[in-house]
Automatic annotation (TrEMBL):
Protein name: Peptidyl-prolyl cis-trans isomerase
Listed InterPro entries: PPIase_dom_sf (IPR046357), PPIase_FKBP_dom (IPR001179)
Keywords carried by this UniProt record: Chaperone, Cytoplasm, Isomerase, Rotamase
One GO CC term on file: cytoplasm
Organism ancestry: Bacteria, Pseudomonadati, Pseudomonadota, Gammaproteobacteria, Alteromonadales
Species assigned in the record: Shewanella pealeana (strain ATCC 700345 / ANG-SQ1)
Principal subcellular localization: cytoplasm
Record PROSITE patterns: FKBP_PPIASE
Catalytic activity: [protein]-peptidylproline (omega=180) = [protein]-peptidylproline (omega=0)
Localization of this protein: Cytoplasm
Domain of life: Bacteria
The protein's role, per its UniProt record: Also involved in hydrogenase metallocenter assembly, probably by participating in the nickel insertion step. This function in hydrogenase biosynthesis requires chaperone activity and the presence of the metal-binding domain, but not PPIase activity.
GO molecular function terms listed in the Swiss-Prot or TrEMBL record: peptidyl-prolyl cis-trans isomerase activity
Family affiliation: Belongs to the FKBP-type PPIase family.
Single biological process term from Gene Ontology: protein refolding
Amino acid sequence: MSIKDDSVVQFNYTLRDEQGEVLETNDGLEPIAYLHGHDNMMHGVEDALTGKDVGAKFSVTLPASQTYGERNEDAEQRVSVKHLQGASVWKPGMRALINTDQGQRQVTIVKMGKFMATVDVNHPLAGRELTFDLEVMDVRDATSEEIAHGHAHGKGGHQH
């Protein structure tokens, strides 16, 4: 079965930077599962997986616009230190989590004060050309419930 819209796809990946250094991988872990064609995956990765079959193993290098987006140099905000999650002592360059209306977001500390911090809200990998080594582990038709919910259920997907 080939990957198409309304397919539940399970895949393994290794993410590499411009120099080929591994940044992330799920090697040795459960495959990632998502519902294809429902904006649950980076557009560049989803496009690369379209039409592939179980067992397909390939690499794709994608520009920032198709992954984490371009860097916005004006994307700094001041937040209260009490909203930073992940450490008890903060220094510039450290990454923190903050809660937003759209869920948790990773930020990078630019400047620390006693009560307020200046943070860069760009994704840490924004603005970078990235290479994804992908392996399709499983493809199946989505259930009507998965399509209605807009995400994959079960192993590697949403658990509810």
